[in-house]
From TrEMBL:
PANTHER family: TRAFFICKING PROTEIN PARTICLE COMPLEX SUBUNIT 9 (PTHR21512)
Pfam families per UniProt: Ig_TRAPPC9-Trs120_1st (PF26254)
Organism classification: Eukaryota, Metazoa, Ecdysozoa, Arthropoda, Hexapoda
Record-given protein name: Trs120/TRAPPC9 first Ig-like domain-containing protein
Organism: Acanthoscelides obtectus (Bean weevil)
Cellular component, GO, one term: trans-Golgi network
UniProt domain Trs120/TRAPPC9 first Ig-like: residue ranges: 171-280
Length: 402
């Protein structure tokens, strides 16, 4: 007598049977509704039934969930996605065809040969010429919503590096004399501010150790790689942010094949507070995409976002002198120099230089400190350079421009 233990295997058999039935339905759909022998092909019915066969192929309509699941047979999945594109085109729904082809490139890229990658990219560009792809859900007549598909890896982002402001624009906290107001109390208890619980809550976000200023130009440097064998034009590139209001400046770049290219994206925060950099947007191959750092295939090296603190608008001074300008500033770092001038003095000779300061911002200046820094010894410097401190005190109140 033979006993078979089907208590464990039976659910697996049922699941496999259902998946096989779903895949067989796809072949049945083509044979019945859109075969060459059918005088009145019904592509709409064909498309609807193929959507029902997606679970049998382990296909999930959301690209993010699909890539995270990483299940199924890529060859069969690619075939079904191509058939979905064809059915959507035959029904006259160009937006759906563009969406499914975008999904195919986004989720199946690593399973495609270089020739297939090029072929599908060209097909997508042709489809998007009829109906541009956009990162919004598509709602069918049945009420089913097709999630947005973004080309997060076309081009591939190798680096995403927020930049500090130029040295002369960096906010610096004014040190004030502290007054004792009472007894000093010490407690070892920490309420947040670096505690282990807070670190766990903020895992995945990176807090930048520098500040940005409201209404100042802020930049992020991207290093992009075009994996296609032809030039890839990427237009309307903008930074994606959350938090305070941020005005991003669009950029357009043409990327040569297999050549890393640096791109600078910039913008201005219009409010003070915390700003979160979550990625960037692109328009390539006729498809608009929101490329978020957390969704990128190479994005394991990226945090989910970068957080930077934006301080209120700061005044900006323009400096001019009565001396002729020079082309270089010998002995100083170029990024610390905003204006250069030169003069020649012989031993025993003296000269006068008028330095004009103009507030070119709309923020009033409340305090002004003047100091001389040189490569000379402090004693020798004091003997050579002198200025009228009384006149500085009289003119310290500098108003903003209208």
């Amino acid at each position: 007598m033979l006993f078979l233990n089907l208590h464990i295997q039976f659910p697996l058999i049922i699941s496999q049977y259902c998946q096989d039935r779903h895949r067989q339905n796809t072949e049945y759909v083509f044979c019945r509704y859109v075969s060459p022998q059918n005088p009145a092909p019904n592509w709409g019915r064909c498309y609807a039934l193929m959507l029902q066969s997606l679970p049998g192929h382990h296909l999930i309509l959301d690209p993010v969930e699909m890539r995270a699941a990483n299940q199924g047979w890529p060859a069969l999945q690619i075939q079904l996605l191509q058939e979905l594109v064809l059915a959507a085109r035959r029904t006259g729904h160009s937006a759906l065809a563009t969406r499914h082809m975008t999904f195919l490139l986004q989720t199946m890229w690593t399973h495609l040969s270089p020739a297939e990658q090029k072929d599908f990219a060209v097909q997508l560009q042709s489809l998007a010429g009829q109906c541009e792809g956009s990162p919004v859900p598509l709602v069918l007549e049945t009420g089913l919503a097709i999630p947005p598909a973004n080309l997060t890896d076309l081009p591939v982002c190798l680096e995403f590096t927020p930049q500090d402001l130029k040295p002369h624009l960096r906010p610096r906290k004014v040190e004030r004399d502290k007054k004792e107001t009472g007894p000093f109390l010490f407690t070892p208890i920490h309420f947040g501010g670096g505690g282990s619980l807070e670190r766990r809550c903020k895992k995945g976000n990176e807090k930048l150790d520098f500040l940005w200023a409201q209404d100042d130009s802020c930049t992020v440097i991207l290093n992009l790689l075009n994996p296609l064998p032809f030039e890839l034009k990427v237009s309307n590139m903008r930074l994606l942010t959350s938090g305070v209001v941020f005005e991003s400046i669009p950029e357009t770049v043409a990327l040569s094949p297999d050549t890393p290219t640096s791109v600078i994206l910039s913008g201005m925060a219009r409010e003070s507070g915390e700003l979160e950099l979550t990625g960037y947007s692109t328009h390539t191959l006729g498809v608009k995409s929101n490329c978020r750092l957390k969704d990128m295939r190479v994005g394991t090296q990226f945090p989910a976002s970068y957080k930077v603190q934006v301080v209120p608008s700061l005044p900006l001074l323009e400096v001019t002198t009565s001396l002729p300008q020079s082309l270089s500033a010998s002995g100083f770092q170029d990024n610390n120099v905003t204006m250069t001038a030169s003069t020649t003095l012989y031993h025993g000779q003296s000269g006068e230089c008028i330095i004009s300061l103009r507030n070119v911002s709309d923020v009033q200046i409340e305090m002004l400190e003047i100091d001389i820094n040189s490569i000379l010894d402090q004693t020798l410097q004091d003997q050579i350079f002198k200025w009228d401190e009384e006149e500085v005190k009289v003119r310290v109140f500098i108003y903003s421009i209208d």
